Amino acid sequence: MKIALFGITRDIVGQPTLELPAPAPATVGALLDHLRANYPALGQLRSCAVAVNNEYAPADQALGPNDEIALIPPVAGG
Amino acid sequence: MTPHLSITDQPIDVAAALAAVQTEAAGAVNSFIGTVRNQSGGRRVRRLHYESYDSMALTQLGHVVAQAYAKWPMLEKVAVVHRKGTLALGDVAVVVAVATPHRAESFAACQFIIDTLKQVVTIWKREEYEDGTEWVAAHP
């Protein structure tokens, strides 16, 4: 499973994408739990969402092998 | 009507964004122009860096504009252009332009689009100060 990182999440992890070995987390919630356990600084952000195929994804959403997955820290456009 | 939406690393042509929404069916064109300010939270800002997850940003921007069309069915045309990359003080960071038959809806729709954009569109801002940098809004 490959996860694209943006903004402060890229700084926290230290690279622009993260490759997770199998077995990959089955849901958005499991992925976030896994990442927060490995990178505690993610838990200190105001928010950290997961995007699946360019849409914000709820915690119970299942993750598939062909999904485009990204970590979305608090946005600040405008 | 297909909105004019883009994210660019080139300086924004404000006149072109306004021209993109002009139509004889609209009596009102309203715009919001966001520019780079020289201070933030009491700290002097030297410049800004915007990072964008382009494909998602355009998808979410499309949703925002679709919501605006649903709320204001009389909306004629919409243009949103957001800059990314490194910006100097005074540079234009974002332009929202809307055209409607009458002015009241143009103010409301323009404000809705910029306010909602700031909540959902996947663009991040890193401010550069005299003494360091910070991702805006990242921490509580």
From TrEMBL, chain A:
The keyword Coiled coil is annotated on this UniProt entry: no
Keyword Metal-binding among record annotations: no
SUPFAM superfamilies, per database record: MoaD/ThiS
Family: Belongs to the MoaD family.
CDD domains hit by this protein: Ubl_MoaD
Protein name: Molybdopterin synthase sulfur carrier subunit
InterPro entries the record matches: Beta-grasp_dom_sf, MOCS2A, Mopterin_synth/thiamin_S_b, ThiS/MoaD-like
Keywords assigned: Nucleotide-binding
TrEMBL record, chain B:
Classification via CDD domains: MoaE
Pfam family, one: MoaE
Biological pathway: Cofactor biosynthesis; molybdopterin biosynthesis
Gene Ontology MF terms in the entry: molybdopterin synthase activity
InterPro entries with a match to the protein in the record: MoaE_sf, Mopterin_biosynth_MoaE
UniProt keyword Transferase, yes or no: yes
Keywords of this entry: Molybdenum cofactor biosynthesis, Transferase
Enzyme class per UniProt: transferase
Reaction catalyzed: 2 [molybdopterin-synthase sulfur-carrier protein]-C-terminal-Gly-aminoethanethioate + cyclic pyranopterin phosphate + H2O = molybdopterin + 2 [molybdopterin-synthase sulfur-carrier protein]-C-terminal Gly-Gly + 2 H(+)
EC identifiers of the protein: 2.8.1.12
Summary of subunit composition and partner proteins: Heterotetramer of 2 MoaD subunits and 2 MoaE subunits. Also stable as homodimer. The enzyme changes between these two forms during catalysis.
Similarity remark: Belongs to the MoaE family.
PANTHER family: MOLYBDOPTERIN SYNTHASE RELATED
Protein name: Molybdopterin synthase catalytic subunit
Source organism per UniProt: Hymenobacter caeli
